[in-house]
Amino acid sequence: MDFSRINTHQYLKILGFMGNWVGIYIYSRQRVNLDYEE
Prior knowledge:
Organism: Crocosphaera watsonii WH 0402
Distance between the termini: 57 Å
Keywords: Cell projection, Cilium, Flagellum
Largest sheet: none
Mean pLDDT: 82
Protein name: Flagellar hook-associated protein FlgK
């Protein structure tokens, strides 16, 4: 059994999941900033 492959896959899956939330958070922050400027 190749543990390194499994760990890398799990790591990438978690990283992608976290990246999704960070992207949504940054996007929402930018939307709020634009609303304040106008």
